[in-house]
Task: structure prediction
Amino acid sequence: MPHPIPDPARTGPGEHPHSPPGLHSTPGPEPLPAPHFVRFQGTTRHPRGHFPGVFALVNTLAKNGRLTPDQERFRRTHNDWYDANYPDPSTVDPTVYDEAVNPGAVAWFKSTSLELIGRVDGYLTILAAHDIPCRRIHSTRPGRIVYEDIHQVVVTPWPTDHSTTT
Result:
């Protein structure tokens, strides 16, 4: 014999109107917040379509001989610090930035990586001195994750839906 659906007007305190009589719902734990990611990037697209990150932008200035001696010292010291203190995704997975395998792949910091994020300011100062605009962006869904460690993710852009009708 099927259970009758309780009358919501007759449901007691703490009972859900669509639960069997006598079954009480209790509030569960608060849902966990969505992971939060941070990225620092230029405002001009790279020819491949993505916006280069601040490390790539500063490293390109260095490669082109445009950094002052103090800027180069900062870049080298801080690049070395990053290399010593967190994994380089491309050494863990050599295909992570391969355009054929992961087109448009870019790295994002996890918002919990405060020490790593805090060291970005010096890179931003160098870029500002060279009139290269940058922005800080945040997301809970930055793209399809193709690499992850405790400090960062590398993502590819979400696919776009080109099936719109006119």
Q: What stands out?
A: The radius of gyration is 24 Å. Residues 1-25, 162-166 have pLDDT under 50 and may be disordered. Residues 74 and 80 are 10 Å apart (CA to CA).
